[in-house]
Amino acid sequence: MNQGKVAGALICAAALTLTLTSAAFGEPATGKPILIGAHLDQAKQASYYSLLQKDSIDLFVKEFNEAGGVNGRPVQVLFEDDENNPVTTAIKVDKLASEGVEYIVSIGSSATGLATQARASELKIPHGAPANLAEQLTTDPPKRYYFRIPLRGKYELGAVAQYLHKKYGAPKLAVVRDTTQTGLVISDQWINDLKKDGFNITALEQVTPGSTEASSQALRVKDSGADVVIVVGGSIPDLANYIKAHKLFENPAPLIGNSLFTAGGFLKLAGIAAEGFVYPDAIDPSRTEIQEIDGKLVKAYGDRLKNQAVALQAWEYMRVVCDAIKRAGSDDREKIRDAMEATKDFPIAIGPPGMTLTYSPTNHDLFTSPDQVVLREVRNGEFGPPLRWR
Length: 390
Known about the structure:
Layout: H1 3-20, E1 34-40, H2 47-66, E2 75-81, H3 86-98, E3 103-106, H4 110-123, E4 127-129, E5 146-148, H5 153-168, E6 172-178, H6 181-196, E7 200-207, H7 215-224, E8 228-232, H8 236-248, E9 255-257, H9 266-270, E10 278-281, H10 288-301, H11 309-328, H12 333-341, E11 346-347, E12 356-357, E13 374-379, E14 382-386
Parallel strand pairs: 1-2, 1-3, 3-4, 4-5, 6-7, 6-8, 8-9
Antiparallel strand pairs: 10-13, 11-12, 13-14
């Protein structure tokens, strides 16, 4: 990295650290709250990452309001259980709209996020997600009222494809997915793009939600002769069952997953079978800013929130949204939408060092290239540091 880039990264890090520690200053917010809605899965397949994001949002809002809120007004988040059901989600969006929310945050699955996108756009409520990564959520041109910061599906897949070519040349692949709606949405995109990139998929296996084991799928994958197994979807417990079976039957093919494996209890669910598992991530844990946020979450909630990418992303997303509401100078939905779209060179803790967020009328995503994606590996029972492979 040249001296100019190093200096720029240091300036961004200093600006971001100052922002993150601003809760030590200002008077607590009072008065009429600014309402933000959020929908999440409280008890089903997406709860493994939904509840982590809720905890992070709760702590962020507490600190934010103690530091003065939005020009002295507190932020209040109204949470609704979407039951991981797109139909239920649309009903909950209507409920949040009737309660006067100025923004809606999707912290459930990508499938429910798509339902929110459809209904909230009709109602002209700005909305978006910290962790929904389905490619369908962002199209060209982008949805006018939708904004997000997680890995965009095609970029995390692009990074995985680069890694596969670099490390294995032209490997034969097997794909294992769960059959939740989110799992199908995400895995279909991966399968299509992997084929376009010239990879030969020798097997496709599915794990039914709620199943207790995946021995038959693991045996068929082993018999397929795949060099690498792609495990992709939205239900962490079900896919963890496959990973345990994969190791139990001593399949030597390495495992690579999508970024949702950074969430929830994956490491506990998979146990020693997760060792060596490679996955794309939006988080570089070596960044000072990430360590600061992580420290706050662990202090408040214990190790359950340690090194949880979706929780860190939820924190940063709320920081982006609240900054836009401040700049809007109003709780008018259209002005907040405009302020979100005008976000430029905003220092953010997501992605590699020095990353900044810039939205525009033609881009409502943080990530714009596979080169910004971090690849990590499970090592010694923990989410390890970034792989140095490029």
